[in-house]
Amino acid sequence: MSLSHITETKVQQVVALATALNNAFPRSPLGLDSRSKEDAAKASAYVASQQRRDLVAYYEGLSADERAELVALIWHGRGDVDPDWAFLLSQAKKERNGAEYVAQKASALPTYLQDGLAKLKAKSSA
Fold first, then answer.
1. b or e along 30-57 (b: 16 or more beta carbons within 10 Å of the residue's beta carbon)?
2. Shortest CA distance to 65 belongs to which of 85, 90, 102, 82?
3. 67, part of any domain
């Protein structure tokens, strides 16, 4: 079981882009308060940031098959859905999650993708 469309290099590029976004906008353990002008400004800066635009643009530049594999890999790494790769891929193709979905996961994206790759490699070698 392996990736058929997206390369590991492209997955690692998404990891790098998400990491750059996370480094530019570290998460507060308390989150953001939507009533605070300061936090509202932080949220606006995050959404408009070059790092976020880079992540979104890279994702949108992937083919539909690459995007589906990337989303399936996120789910696989997250581990909260059926671990069957064929099922995950089929669901990802049906749902057609967009760049916003991926961008919203940026804080955990590096972990999800690296864990997903590790799980796929472990299944391939088993």
1. eeeeeeeeeeeeeeeebeeeebbeebbe
2. 90
3. yes
Long-range (24+ apart) CB contacts under 8 A made by 21-25 are 21/49, 21/51, 21/52, 21/54, 21/55, 21/106, 22/106, 22/107, 22/110, 24/49, 24/51, 25/49, 25/51
Residue 2 lies in a domain: no
**Number of domains the chain is built from:** 1
pLDDT in tens, the chain (126 residues): 579 999 999 999 999 999 999 898 887 666 655 677 877 788 788 888 999 999 999 999 999 999 999 999 999 999 877 678 888 889 888 987 788 889 888 889 999 999 999 988 887 776
Flag whether 3 is in a domain.
Answer: no
pTM given for the model: 0.87
82: left (phi over 0), alpha (psi -120 to 50) or beta: beta
Is-contact 56 98, C-beta < 8 A? no
Query: Residue 23 belongs to what domain range?
Result: 8-125
